[in-house]
Design a protein that fits this description.
By secondary structure, this protein is of the alpha/beta class. 52% of the residues lie in helices and 15% in strands. The chain contains ten helices and eight strands. It has helices at residues 11-23, 34-44, 57-70, 84-93, 105-127, 133-139, 146-157, 165-171, 183-197, 223-229, and strands at 3-7, 27-31, 48-52, 75-79, 97-100, 162-163, 205-208, 212-215. It has a five-stranded parallel sheet with strand order 2-1-3-4-5, with helices on both faces. A three-stranded antiparallel sheet has the order 6-8-7. It is elongated.
């Protein structure tokens, strides 16, 4: 569920936008003034800010610039067709996209989903920032479950180290390792399968028998040969 802040002084349009977003399973907070928006963002943040251009242009530009500089939350503008010059100024201030009125519910949801998808992708890339740009680009696009992603993040952050199964079980899966628990091994197997399907080598995550797992972005040239004979 995404946390969306709607900035709108018009009660009718605010109600309509809120209904559309809530129906699409988003969590929505509606606010009507800049101070409330900035206070909320400072306290809990937001995945997306939607601003309906129905108030002073100067106030909106100032709000957009403040959000851009201090919180980096993506901003979607809902703009009137006759405000092209104002719209350009708002985009320069830091807004990401705009949607001209009148718009359909589907158009609003498509623009919302595009921006939220970008946010999710940027978060994934940040989680793999310790890897090379090329490797991070590839692995951040794999369809990992939340648990699988957490395991990969933990392993990649400890590159070259041998991480015991007990440590992974406790730090990532949040429970102690029992003798017959194969849950961790199943997750690692699924991760390797998804990496392989995407053209990445399974050997990035190595099994160190009797000790645990180890991640390495750079593969030894002899590793595939050794793996063949194992």
């Amino acid at each position: 569920m995404s946390n969306i802040v709607v900035v709108d002084t018009d009660l009718e349009s605010r109600s309509l936008i809120t209904k559309i977003l809530i129906k699409a399973s988003h969590q929505v907070t509606c606010l009507s003034n800049s101070d409330s928006v900035l206070n909320l963002l400072e306290q809990q943040g937001a995945d997306l800010v939607i601003i309906n251009d129905c108030t002073s242009s100067e106030i909106i530009v100032e709000l957009i610039a403040k959000i851009y500089e201090d919180f980096a939350a993506p901003i979607l503008l809902l703009s009137e067709p006759d405000k092209q010059d104002t719209l350009l100024e708002q985009l320069r201030a830091g807004a990401d996209q705009y949607l001209m009125k009148p718009f359909s519910a589907n158009a609003l949801l498509v623009h919302t989903d595009v921006l939220l998808r970008r946010v999710a992708l940027e978060k994934q890339r940040a989680n793999f920032s310790h890897c090379s740009q090329q490797f991070s680009f590839k692995i951040s696009r794999l369809p990992f479950t939340d648990t699988e992603e957490q395991l990969v993040q933990y392993l990649t952050s400890k590159e070259g180290d041998i991480i015991s199964k007990a440590t992974l079980q406790k730090e990532v899966l949040k429970k102690d390792l029992s003798m017959f628990d194969r849950n961790l091994d199943v997750h690692i197997s699924n991760i390797r399968r998804k990496m392989s399907n995407a053209g990445l080598s399974k050997l990035h995550i190595k099994t160190v028998h009797g000790k645990g797992y180890s991640f390495s972005e750079r593969l030894s040239k002899v590793a595939p040969l050794l793996f063949f004979f194992l």
